[in-house]
From TrEMBL:
Protein name: Kelch-like protein 17
Pfam families reported in the protein's UniProt record: BTB (PF00651), TLD (PF07534)
Domain (TLDc) ranges: 376-563
Alphabetical list of Gene3D superfamilies matching this protein: Potassium Channel Kv1.1, Chain A
Domain BTB positions: 73-160
Alphabetical list of SMART domains matching this protein: BTB
Residues of the signal peptide: none
InterPro entries: BTB-POZ/Galectin-3-binding, BTB/POZ_dom, SKP1/BTB/POZ_sf, TLDc_dom
Length: 565
């Protein structure tokens, strides 16, 4: 076995010697396809970039074995094995400096003069025989190859990258100040980046720093996008405790943060305790579910003072007036009175007694977007997800920061009755409606969006006639299934768009039936009595099955008009 390995090593070693550079130093060139696209020759390369960490040969300990042919006795062979995460790249300064793609390279290379052996202000750079040597020990060679491909050709082929690899690329591009690459990664691989946040402390530790390396408009977009779609991912673990204060500030400032305001306060207090010199901070590491009352039960006056100093400029960003009165005083007003703004408790009490007097008070922060929805089935975060899907399917892009939706309740089965006739009376003739269904004896929430109106009758002259399975073409309707057990787990949420070859079958009008999507994809109908409502669901016209149940009983359902502001 050792002989076979050693023979392979000798062959590899000989092949490497054939590709020596002019000064006989062995180098590794990056991808051959990339080299073929560069007009310059190898000889014109004037920079060596040493990427990754290399273990010196003298530090390697050969494996002792009586067999002289054992390759693991060869230190050079061991170096090849142990230094696979180290490479040397020969590149062109003319390419690195072109259009100032990277301010890191531009600033570093600008430090050099024509003097030989000049030490740079960058400790990782030296100049030897007119060749600039740059060391980047913290970057993985595989990641750097992708960066070079982007710098030279503008190509970015990372579809097979894992979420963690994309995050590593993001951090490397941010470190090298490649703003175009960083922005492109945020734009095209946002979901993978965000879900990597819940996997490692090192990811969180650099994430907010990377965000704040972006231009202010890009930074604002990223933060609002995070708050709108991934608030439960951001705060789903204790990793958020390591966020920078300015990042916490901008998250709390965002109108797009989809969280219960009392929960927002809880997260802020835990962040403040963790980042203050308070002994209870270590309790946060042992349990993410520890309550605030448990955390502060042994607080001293000094502890409250330290906490108050840490978060005093963040407290005004909490929407206190949007919290139920009893919850406010029980969870905030009484236990944290010493760190709250003077007069807040009194103001909250007055506001809840006579809200109409305070309706135009500019000092009271309004509810966050989608936090308030008159639904007994879904909550704010799910509303935001539906809003994003509506925008995406209607306009082919994600919901923009400045856009907003209102959801106006038209009909609720448990309130208005489950008779199909009542549904048509309440909802017919109204555009942009979304149907939300809670399946009985299940956690499943399903539904569909219809950009057109529902209709049960059509007119010919002065007479009205009932619709009977009249199909309406539509390219922007969709079905969905929402995860009701763990918010923020996108893998449990299903968006089912209309198939391109089934657009003519998207919506059906039927006087004797309720809302119907596709030939059989989702359909509500009364069985045996007006109050016995059942659903039918079998994938045909839409792309995905939204429930495994072909037939189901309806616990409740709601219809909202979606109003675009």
């Amino acid at each position: 076995m050792f002989k076979c390995i050693y023979k392979l090593y000798i062959i590899f070693k000989r092949k490497r010697k054939k590709s020596t550079y002019k000064n006989s130093k062995e180098i590794r060139m990056f991808d051959k396809n990339l080299l073929n696209s560069i007009s310059s020759t190898q000889d014109s390369c004037d920079i060596i970039i040493k990427v990754g960490k290399k273990l010196p040969v003298e530090e390697l300990t050969p494996i002792k074995n009586s067999n002289d042919n054992n390759p693991f006795r060869d230190k050079e062979f061991l170096s090849e094995i142990y230094n696979q995460n180290y490479k040397e790249f020969h590149v062109h300064s003319s390419i690195l400096l072109k259009d100032i793609k990277s301010k890191y390279f531009y600033n570093a290379l600008s430090n050099f003069t024509n003097d030989n052996d000049l030490k740079s202000t960058e400790k990782c750079m030296i100049k030897e025989n007119q060749i600039i040597v740059l060391e980047l020990p913290e970057i993985n060679p595989t990641i750097f190859e992708v960066i070079l491909e982007f710098v030279y050709n503008g190509n970015l082929d990372i579809n097979n990258f894992t979420a963690q690899e994309i995050v590593s690329l993001l951090f490397a591009s941010s470190y090298l100040d490649l703003k175009n690459l960083t922005s492109r990664l945020f734009t095209t691989h946002f979901t993978k980046i965000i879900h990597a946040l819940n996997t490692s402390y090192s990811t969180i530790n650099h994430f907010d720093e990377t965000i704040y390396s972006q231009k202010i408009d890009q930074r604002r977009y990223i933060i609002n996008h995070l708050c709108l779609e991934y608030s439960s991912v951001i705060f789903g673990s204790n990793y958020y405790l390591s966020f920078y204060k300015n990042f916490i500030h901008d998250i709390l400032l965002s109108d797009d943060l989809i969280m219960n305001e009392l929960e927002v306060w809880t997260k802020l207090i835990k962040w403040g305790i963790f980042n203050s010199d308070i002994s209870q901070k270590f309790s946060l590491l042992s349990s993410s579910n520890i309550t605030l009352n448990e955390l502060i039960k042994d607080f001293s006056g000094k502890d409250f003072t330290k906490l108050g100093e840490k978060i005093k400029d963040l407290i005004p960003l909490i929407r206190f007036y949007q919290i139920e009165l009893d919850d406010y005083f029980k969870e905030i007003g009484y236990p944290f009175k010493s760190i709250l703004p003077e007069g807040l408790n009194k103001g909250i009490f007055k506001y809840n007694m006579k809200k109409e007097i305070f309706s135009n008070n500019n000092n009271i922060l309004p509810p966050r977007k989608y936090q308030k929805i008159d639904s007994t089935i879904i909550v704010g975060e799910q509303t935001a997800l539906l809003a994003k899907w509506i925008k995406e399917c209607n306009f082919g892009e994600y919901l923009k920061v400045e856009d907003d939706f209102d959801f106006k309740l038209l009909f609720r089965g448990s309130k208005n009755g489950f008779d199909i006739g009542t549904f048509h009376k309440k909802c017919d003739g109204i555009d942009n409606t979304i149907v939300i269904i809670k399946i009985k004896d299940s956690d499943e929430i399903i539904g569909g969006y219809n950009p057109f109106s529902w209709q049960s009758l059509f007119n010919i002259g002065l007479q009205s006639f009932p619709y009977e399975n009249y199909n309406v073409p539509c390219s922007s309707s969709f079905l969905f299934s929402l995860n009701n057990t763990r918010l923020g787990n996108d893998s449990k949420n299903v968006l089912s768009k209309i198939k391109e070859n089934q657009i003519n079958e998207a919506i059906y009008y039927n006087q004797t039936g309720g809302p119907k999507f596709g030939k059989s994809d989702l359909y509500l109908v009364n069985i045996s009595s007006q109050e016995n409502l059942v659903g039918h669901c079998k994938k045909y016209s839409y792309s995905h099955q939204i429930t495994d149940k072909s037939f189901f009983k309806v616990e409740d359902y709601e219809v909202f008009q979606v109003i675009v502001n």
